[in-house]
Design a protein that fits this description.
Number of helices: 11
Order of helices and strands: EHHEHEHEHEEEEEEHHHHEEHEEH
Distance between the termini: 43 Å
Strand content: 15-25%
Bound molecules: pyridoxal-5'-phosphate
CATH topology of the largest domain: Aspartate Aminotransferase, domain 2
Length: 387
C-alpha cells in the first residue's frame, strides 16, 4: 500500500493524504477487526451506524458546530444539493411564514449560476441578487455590495444562496456581507473550500458541499443545517401551495430523522470522510490548516505575479481563491508546452476547467507545501525561459 507522493493539482476528485487512503484501504478489507470490510457491513448495524455517528461528531468538533445546527449526509454531490436545497428551503420558509418567498441567488461563477438555474427549473421563483458577470462583464470579481440588487424588503427571500469558493473561476469570498440580509437564511456551497478555514457556522442556515475535494472521495455530500429549517409543510400543504415536492431520499427532515440512513448510505465513503476529519484534528485542526493554506496560496500567487509578461491572473486580487489558483499563459500557443514541462517534473492536474481553458492549480488541504514549492520552482523556470 505504498505510492510515491504525488504532486497533483486536480480540482476534483482531488488528492487525499496517503496515510488516510492507506487506512481506508485496510478498513475496506477488515473493519474494526470484524473480518468484514466497512463497505460490506449493514448501514443499520452498530458498526455501520457508528461510522455516521462518529463522522458527525468529528465534524461538529472540528467546526465547533453549535447545538442549533445538525449534520447529515446525502448520496450524490454538489448538484444534488442545488436541487434539494431549492425544494427543502422553499418549503421551510413557507412553513415558517405562511408565504411563498423568492429564492435569492448571488451568482459569482459557474457553480452558483448552475444552482440558480436548477432552482428556477424546479419551479422555484428566484431573485438574482447579484450576477457579477452582468455587473463587471466577467466572472473573476465580487462587486461591492452597493452594486448588488438587494430587495427593499429582504424578508421576501426564502433563503439567500451563494458559493463561497467558485472552483472553476477561482473566486472566493473573503467574507460574506451577512449584515445586509438580517433574518435571511444564508446558504453556502462550500464544496471546494470546506474545512480549508475556520467558519462561524452560527451565521448560516445551511452549509453544504460534495466531499470529493477537501473532505473525501466522490459519492457523498455533507450538510450542516439550522435545526429550525427542518420543519416543513406536509405533502398536501405543499400541493395546495403549488410548491415542488422533494423526492423522499433528499427530504432533509426524513434524512435527519433516520441518522442519514433512510436508504442505504455508502458507509465506506462516509468512513473516508471520518478518516480525513480525524487526520485534520490530529494535525492541529482548522486553525493550523488555514495558516498553511494561506502560505501555499501566497507563494503561488506571488510567483505568478512576478512575471506579468508570461502569466495572466484573471481574478481580482481581493477575491483570489486560496484553493483554486486560476491563471493563463499569455501566449496561449505555449499551453501544451507548459503542461508537458509540468508533467516531466511530475506536476499534474494543472489544466484549467474545459469551460474556461488556461491553467488551474488546486491546492486543497492535502496538497503539501513541498508540492507547491516544486510548482513554484517550475513556474520560475518556465517564466525565465519565456520572458
Ligand atoms: N459546487 C462547487 C463549488 C463545485 O466545485 C462543484 C463541482 O466541482 C459542484 C458544486 C458540483 O458538484 P458535483 O459534481 O459533485 O455535483
Amino acid at each position: 500500500l505504498e505510492r510515491e507522493e504525488p504532486n497533483y493539482f486536480g480540482a476534483g476528485p482531488a488528492l487525499l493524504p496517503t496515510n488516510v487512503l492507506q487506512q481506508a484501504a485496510k478498513d475496506l478489507i477488515n473493519f474494526n477487526g470484524l473480518g468484514l470490510g466497512v463497505g460490506e457491513i449493514s448501514h443499520r448495524s452498530k458498526d455501520g451506524a457508528g461510522v455516521v455517528e462518529q463522522t458527525s461528531a468529528n465534524l461538529k468538533k472540528l467546526l465547533n458546530i453549535p447545538d442549533t445546527h445538525e449534520v447529515f449526509f446525502l448520496q450524490g454531490g454538489g448538484t444534488t444539493g442545488f436541487s434539494s436545497i431549492a425544494t427543502n428551503l422553499t418549503a421551510a420558509h413557507a412553513k415558517k411564514t405562511g408565504k411563498i418567498g423568492k429564492a435569492g441567488y448571488v451568482v459569482t461563477g459557474t457553480w452558483s449560476k448552475k444552482a440558480s438555474e436548477e432552482a428556477a427549473r424546479l419551479g422555484v421563483e428566484t431573485e438574482i441578487v447579484l450576477d457579477s458577470k452582468k455587473v463587471d462583464g466577467r466572472f473573476g470579481t465580487i462587486p461591492s455590495v452597493d452594486k448588488w440588487s438587494i430587495p427593499k424588503d429582504v424578508s421576501e427571500l426564502s433563503y439567500l444562496y451563494y458559493c463561497d469558493n467558485e472552483t472553476v473561476n477561482g473566486v472566493e469570498f473573503p467574507e460574506f456581507p451577512f449584515e445586509k440580509f438580517p433574518g435571511v437564511e444564508i446558504v453556502a456551497d462550500m464544496s471546494s473550500n470546506f474545512l480549508s478555514k475556520k467558519v462561524d457556522v452560527s451565521k448560516y442556515g445551511l452549509i453544504f458541499g460534495g466531499a470529493q475535494k477537501n473532505v473525501g472521495i466522490a459519492g457523498i455530500s455533507i450538510y450542516i443545517i439550522k435545526k429550525s429549517l427542518l420543519d416543513l409543510p406536509t405533502v398536501d400543504e405543499l400541493k395546495k401551495l403549488g410548491l415542488p415536492i422533494t423526492p423522499i431520499a433528499f427530504d432533509y427532515p426524513t434524512v435527519v430523522k433516520n441518522n442519514s440512513a433512510y436508504n442505504t448510505i455508502p458507509t465506506f465513503t462516509v468512513h473516508v470522510v471520518n478518516l480525513v476529519l480525524k487526520n485534520l484534528i490530529e494535525k492541529g485542526g482548522l486553525e493550523k490548516q488555514e495558516v498553511l493554506n494561506k502560505v501555499k496560496a501566497e507563494i503561488l500567487y506571488n510567483t505568478l505575479d512576478k512575471y506579468p509578461s508570461v502569466f495572466k491572473l484573471p481574478v481580482d486580487e481581493n477575491v483570489r481563491s486560496k484553493m483554486n489558483v486560476v491563471f493563463t499563459i499569455k501566449d496561449g500557443s505555449l499551453d501544451e508546452e507548459f503542461l508537458k514541462g509540468a508533467a516531466d517534473n511530475k506536476l499534474t492536474g494543472l489544466k484549467g476547467h474545459r469551460s474556461v481553458g488556461g491553467m488551474r492549480a488546486s491546492i486543497y488541504n492535502a496538497v503539501t507545501l513541498e508540492s507547491v514549492s516544486l510548482l513554484v520552482k517550475y513556474l520560475d523556470e518556465f517564466a525565465n525561459a519565456h520572458k
